[in-house]
């Protein structure tokens, strides 16, 4: 008996179509919930684990998770310039970022921290002007003013303890700036290097920066208590898995539309914090968060060409 193979497109949908439409949406949703949960977990353990131990432990766990993927993908030798960018991104985004965010959440609540981090794209847009020669236009300047006005409003309303709230806001704002450094360095690195290699090196570099401030980490590991498992959670889900699901969603959806969904993270973080640790940001913080988001949206607009 002979067999025939039809070339009718309707008879071979699997060969011509991508994944089910709900899969990228689900992957993006999982990422947002995991990233939001990280702010709540950090806030929950901020006074029990030092910022350095929380950062180094999280990053070492994440490196172990992605190591098999790196071994499978293979190593691409970086150039001297790429090593410099890898070091800059690892030190900034994964080292200083974790130290600043973990310390900042000792002074501000999870929802407030998630809102301040949203100012990162504004900093990216500003730094891209001198680094990549992007145009400094009116929307960028206006967005920068509105975005940082939002941070000022958050600082004003984040706590009745003015000194503590200001310190927390400044630390989280530093974390947002380091996020911007990481995004800009990865923009160059990912042109040639595999993404899993970039994040693996960044994880290890960031862990090395945090380790000198991690004197309590050996005791946490030896004790094997709840603090250790919170560190493992942060390393596996919001760090290693969430970046993987985000990459999958980004592969199958529009990058601009997907990036806008990160504005849901503060709302999700606030909801999780309310349900789990009974914590809600002050009402003025929501006004500042809205201003910060509007500022980011303004920086992404482009002036009409003459």
How would you sum up this structure, described in words?
With 306 residues, this protein is an all-alpha fold. The protein has one domain (23-299). Helices cover 75% and strands 0% of the residues. It has 14 helices and no strands. It has helices at 13-16, 22-45, 51-73, 80-104, 110-117, 120-132, 138-157, 162-189, 195-210, 217-223, 226-252, 255-260, 265-277, 283-299. Mean pLDDT is 85; it is low at 1-16.
Largest sheet descriptor: none
Count of alpha and pi helical runs: 14
State the secondary-structure class: mainly alpha
Order of SSEs: HHHHHHHHHHHHHH
Strand content: under 5%
Low-confidence stretches: 1-16
Helix content: over 70%
Rounded radius of gyration (Å): 21 Å
Mean pLDDT: 85
Distance linking N and C termini: 68 Å
Count of spatially separate domains: 1
The backbone outline, from C-alpha atoms, is: globular
Number of strands: 0
């Amino acid at each position: 008996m002979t067999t025939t193979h039809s070339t009718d497109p309707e008879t071979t949908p699997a060969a011509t179509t991508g994944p089910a439409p709900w899969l990228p949406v689900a992957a993006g949703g999982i990422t947002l919930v995991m990233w939001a949960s990280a702010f709540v977990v950090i806030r929950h353990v901020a006074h029990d684990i030092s910022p350095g131990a929380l950062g180094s432990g999280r990053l070492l766990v994440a490196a172990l998770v992605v190591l098999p993927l790196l071994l499978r993908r293979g190593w691409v030798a970086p150039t001297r310039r790429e090593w410099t960018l890898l070091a800059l991104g690892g030190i900034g985004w994964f080292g200083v970022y974790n130290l600043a965010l973990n310390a900042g959440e000792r002074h501000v609540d999870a929802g407030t921290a998630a809102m301040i981090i949203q100012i990162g794209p504004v900093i990216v847009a500003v730094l891209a002007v001198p680094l990549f020669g992007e145009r400094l236009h009116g929307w960028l300047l206006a967005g920068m003013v509105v975005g940082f006005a939002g941070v000022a409003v958050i600082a004003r309303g984040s706590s009745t303890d003015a000194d503590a709230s200001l310190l927390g806001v400044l630390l989280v704002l530093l974390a947002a700036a380091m996020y911007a450094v990481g995004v800009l360095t990865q923009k160059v690195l990912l042109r040639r290097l595999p993404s899993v290699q970039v994040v693996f090196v960044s994880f290890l570099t960031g862990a090395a920066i945090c380790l000198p401030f991690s004197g309590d980490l050996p005791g946490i590991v030896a004790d094997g208590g709840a603090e250790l498992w919170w560190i493992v959670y942060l390393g596996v889900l919001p760090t290693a898995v969430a970046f993987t699901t985000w990459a999958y969603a980004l592969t199958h959806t529009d990058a601009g539309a997907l990036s806008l969904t990160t504005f849901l993270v503060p709302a999700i973080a606030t909801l999780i914090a309310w349900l789990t640790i009974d914590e809600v940001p002050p009402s003025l913080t929501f006004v500042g968060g809205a201003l910060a988001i509007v500022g980011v949206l303004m920086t992404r607009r482009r002036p009409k060409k003459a």
